[in-house]
Fold each of these.
Amino acid sequence: MSNDGLFSLIRSDIELKRHWFLKNDTWFNRNIRVFLEPGTIAVIVYRYGHWVNQLGIPVLKQLLKVFYMLANMGVILGFGIYISSGLKAGRGFAIHNFSSIFIPATTVGDNFIVFHEVTVGHLRGEGGRPPRIGNNVFLAAGAKVLGDLTIGDNVVVGANSLVIGDVPDNCTVIGVPARIFDRDNTWIQEKLAGKGEHW
């Protein structure tokens, strides 16, 4: 989990989204439309809510939390995206598309990429502990990651796959339940390699 400030983290989120989805797009899409997309708005609202939770001034915290609650309700009702403000996310968090996305209070690393209809959650009887997710993880459309488990670094979870067990580093998993398809995944690192020097 990064200790960077609010605006630094938001900047890293925007840059990841630009690099991953808009690298060869128009100036307008890279600099204007990116801020208007539901996924971007949802991540910014999450970052703000998490920042408010860390404030040490109770009166200010409660005041700012009202704005977060209103914005978060708009994201949930308008876009169908729920991200807990208790989530501890590293640098670079990008949501592509929107609708039916649920991410609870857990821990995810840097460069976390999520598509629509993704659910991350716990299973009954496990004390409510959600999955822990490493760096450079890609959850494709419809992926479900459920239970007290750990996903390693550089992992791709295929579309509509159901992950209910640990996933080692550098793997691609697919299926219901998900099974390892590739143990030498270099795709994510190669795609991220072209990022600017501020990464």
Amino acid sequence: MRHNHVRPRKPVILLALGATLLVTPPAGAIVGGQTVPAGDSPMLMVLSDRGTVCSGVVIAPDAVLTAAHCVTGGSAYRLHWRGTDGKPVMEEPKRITIHPDYHSDAIAARSRSIDLAVIQTKRALPDTFTQSQLPPANQPPQAKETRLTIQGFGLSNESQPDSIGSLRQITLPVVTPYGQGKLLLWLSGQANQGACTGDSGGGIFDRDGVLQAITVWSEGKGQARCGTMTQGIMLAPHRAWIDKTLKR
């Protein structure tokens, strides 16, 4: 079984975003999902100078939670969204804080890694964003078969690089909390359902809209990278770190 970070593989994506997708974004993101109405989500995009596209979740007026692998390895990052006038907005972060237990070589080393990062902005984000509620630190892991909703800007078709950039969502059942300390969360879909390239850093929400986890991995059948399983880092065990970071 092969796992992959949910990230773009070619730097042409960012170039396409600057030239085309920011003007007329195609229907895309979340394999098998549905479009999220504008203004109904705390989500935005996280872009890098490496050409990668990720998703992020607004958790405070000046802070976004994403996956650590989305904001490491490059030299510059931007938050992207559309203003109320429909025009693209790009913002440089004030500060990016990587979880101290994140290890980029965790797969090869077979070690635990907490793939989370907080992006703090230079000024308050627009109040048009919904601010996500975080789970309490003592919340138990999600029970098997609980249905959670994934949101992200990733590919809706793995074979079509231009199907990235539009916010979509899908609701899937929990397979089981997984891993040491029950820090990971697995969601299972039928064929061609789940997160895909570009959905890393996106939110996994419960039925009340509470942000329970951040998407970090996806996998598919055979050579596919997407469409059967989605993995997230659960946030309840990391509330202390998130709260401390937000106070900086």
Amino acid sequence: MGLYEKTLYLLMGDRGLLLEFGDEISHEVNERVRRMALAIEAEAIEGIIETVLTYGSLLIIYNPLTLPIDSLKKKLQEIEKELQETPFPEAKLTRIPAVYGGAYGPDLEGVAKHCGISTEEVIRLHCSKPYFIYMIGFMPGYPYMGELPEALIMPRLKTPRLSVPKGSVAIAQKQTGIYSMESPGGWQIIGRTPVELFSPEGKPPALLQMGDLVQFYPISEEEFKEWQNRKN
């Protein structure tokens, strides 16, 4: 269905209001989420504590003692009527280096076999286009990006790993992502980047932002280690 004809307003407890804009991963739906978040930020509405963005929805955390739910809904509906007038920033492209295969990408050969192509072709295809960042989530700084070339569409692992190294570059279904810190995970790991994606002291803390673009490029293991040494 894509973008809904009318935004759904759903109560989430006594302090949350969820706005659902569509039911699939698409640029159109995602743009509306981001436009709405930017418009709300620009309005600086007293009583709104936080907004949380996803692929197709926007969660608004608010103080009901300051901002009653009826007043909040009315204000949001007014904002929606003028949404297309909201200034929209141009997407920024970030190039991310990655070493593919071996200990850094333990699933690369399995991906190549499943897709019926060589490991070199997997790498070439993965680096062949910029990916749109649909959202940041799962862990701080983790980018959900798409869409992969059709030839690389893969299922998740049947059994998730208990530990995936920080910086691991992964694919699953039509998406690719980067583990910003060590964690469990069920995506197919094809490489690793030495780039730091999240730093609590950073402004902003996350290197990548929703709505921006990422393009990978391959580096050697030696270059990976040199990069890490420069950081240290």
